Amino acid sequence: MNAPFRLATDPRRGRALALGIFIAAVIAVVVAIAVPVWLLNRHYDTALAEGLDKLDRYRRIASTRTQVVRENEAMAARDPHSFYLRAGGAALSAAQAQEAIRALVESSGGRLITIGAPVTHDDGRYRQVSINVQLTANIFALLKILGSVESNAPYLFVDNATIRTQVPATFRPPAGAEPEMFVQFDVYGYSLGGAK
Questions:
Q1: How many domains does the chain have?
Q2: Are 156 and 149 in contact (CB under 8 A)?
């Protein structure tokens, strides 16, 4: 007899082979059922974790509601329109900016040389008003002027500053005296009600 036929007719080997095929079939059925169940479970676990994370973030955001409402009320009480130059014509806005600069320079110890003609630029709802300022001041007065300009209401912003000394490099000032410097810069602010 030939060997393959003898293997098939051997009862012990046949039972072992049948048992192996049965176990492989059971494992295949278990894997066919368990893997999709496990993948589905993992999908829902991930979705649940993401949902809980999102819910936690929304709760944290919602818990700040009272603080945000308080800050909005405080900002409304500060009158946000006071941070802008006067609405209306460009000349009115420029005059307010010029007067504010004149008062800040004189109160800080500087000497105003000239204030250039205003330049306006409409940008939707806002109008940018720019003026050129030339003055002389020592370093302490200049620091005070620049600090006052940028902390003033209405808000004004300094741009294109040029500072030149008016004394030679060998100049030695007396004790307690600072030399004057020539200062030129643009100041701009915004008003509401430009071109609509």
A1: 2
A2: yes
For the stretch 7-46, pLDDT in tens is 556 788 888 888 999 999 999 999 999 999 999 999 999 9
* Contact between 137 and 183 (Cβ < 8 Å): yes
Q: Which amino acid is present at 164?
A: R
Tokens at residue 18, please? Answer: 């049948």
Maximum distance among all Cα pairs of the chain, rounded to whole angstroms:
128
The pTM of the full predicted model, rounded to 2 decimals, is: 0.55
pLDDT 10s digits, 103-122: 989 998 889 998 887 888 88
- Structural domain boundaries enclosing 158: 82-192
Compute the residue count for the chain. 196
Distance CA(127)–CA(151), nearest Å, equals 20
CB 85 within 8 A of CB 189: yes
